[in-house]
Design goal:
It is built from 14 helices and ten strands. It has a domain at 74-308: Cytochrome-c3 Hydrogenase, chain B (Orthogonal Bundle), CATH 1.10.645. The chain has 385 residues and is of the alpha+beta class. The longest helix is centred in the N-terminal third of the chain and has 29 residues, at 108-136. 44% of the residues lie in helices and 14% in strands.
């Protein structure tokens, strides 16, 4: 009698679609979140996934081509939309790429303000992710906590930049303005509240027996997989690799800050959540360090020619930074005109949400598909750019 269960090779089930009975179902696209901005074509045998094909293109897309048809300064509203929950990494890299091609150096105060902006952006992004990870496993309480508290971080952005989501604060030559009166005190209050919230999240989510039962052992990433798939950020660090652009290739003022690279060794969804929980605490601490060490006064912007007709010298460069998902890079080419010749965005989501996800989902229970997707922390616009 033929067995209903697939053979196990190297500890993993091997499915033969020609002989295996299966049904094909679709997950997505529907908003909100990563599990709804993409579409997964899933072959299911019983309640297990035996094959997955990812389908993208349902969100706003084509950013790189759009940038070739716009002047440099007009590209900033575009790059912010490549990663909605963490747009500041994109605007920093686009501005840094322009500055490197022009051979200009921004003021020291502007470097501190940029780093502060990036860490606040990481805080907001991590809060959204932790809530999404909890919600993907049916724990709506933590999701409501984090999404609500993220609004307090957005209040800080609104006071500092005039905008809540797309800030366009880091422009070529520095930043648009200095810190307003009373903002530092407000920031410390928000950071204190976020730290207390993380303690509650640890109690309700990370120490929850049901969450552990579902997340431990789910979607294991081994050290051998990291370079093969191009895995970066917490997805690589959960497999024990100490890789962080802020340490490996320091930019702005990160070499003047005190922090360690967070790692785990299990490589599963639970360890990835633990790393991101600790890195949220880390971003809070880095914000406090920056506020304590930042020069109290000084220029925040250098004088540039009319940015509407700014011509960048011909050349090419690659600039990178550490986003919440890992290494984020911009390859920029200028032909000396007022328009970028080529801009290619290296977003972590491209490799994490497609090739890696398709392989990790094989053998996973259909109820854990969303939880595994969210544990990889991907944003589909980075794929569709």
């Amino acid at each position: 009698m033929q067995s209903l269960y697939p053979p196990i090779v190297n500890g993993k089930a091997v499915y033969d679609l020609d002989s295996q009975k299966y049904i094909r179902v679709w997950q997505g696209p529907q908003h909100p979140g990563v599990t709804g901005n993409m579409s997964l074509e899933l072959d299911i045998c019983g309640d297990q996934v035996i094959k997955c094909n990812t389908h993208v293109g349902y969100l706003h897309r084509g950013f790189e081509k759009l940038m070739e048809r716009r002047r440099y300064i007009n590209c900033f509203p575009i790059v912010c939309r490549i990663c909605v929950p963490e747009p500041d990494t994109n605007e920093y890299l686009f501005a840094a790429g322009m500055e490197e091609l022009m051979g200009v150096q921004i003021p020291e105060k502007a470097m501190w303000l940029r780093a502060l902006n990036l860490e606040l952006s990481r805080l907001a992004s991590f809060l959204m992710h932790l809530g999404g990870q909890s919600g993907a496993f049916g724990m709506g309480t933590v999701a409501q906590w984090t999404i609500a508290y993220r609004d307090y971080v957005l209040d800080l952005f609104e006071e500092l930049t005039g905008a809540r989501i797309y800030h366009m604060y880091m422009t070529p030559g520095g930043v648009r303005g200095d810190i307003p009166e009373g903002w530092i005190a407000h920031t410390h209050k928000v950071l204190d509240g976020a730290s207390k919230l993380l303690d509650e999240i640890k109690h309700v989510m990370l120490n929850n027996a049901i969450f552990k039962q579902r997340a431990i052992g789910l979607g294991v990433i081994t050290p051998e997989m990291v370079d093969h798939y191009g895995i970066v950020g917490p997805n690589a660090r959960c497999a024990g690799l100490k890789r962080d652009v802020r340490k490996d290739n320091p930019y702005l003022i990160y070499d003047q800050l005190d922090f360690e690279v967070e790692t785990e060794t299990a490589g599963d969804a639970y360890s990835r959540t633990c790393i991101r929980w600790r890195e949220t605490h880390q971003s809070i601490d880095l914000c406090r360090q920056i506020l304590a060490k930042m020069p109290p006064s000084g220029a925040v912007h250098i004088t540039l020619p009319n940015v509407l007709h700014l011509k960048i010298p011909a050349g090419q460069t690659y600039v990178r930074a550490e986003s919440t998902r890992g290494e984020y890079g911009y390859f920029m080419v200028s032909d000396g005109s007022e328009f970028p010749r080529k801009v290619t965005v290296r977003g972590p989501s491209y490799s994490h949400a497609m090739a890696l996800l398709e392989d990790l989902l094989v053998g996973v229970n259909i109820a854990d598909v969303a939880g595994l997707m969210v544990s990889l922390h991907t944003y589909p616009p980075e794929i569709e750019r």
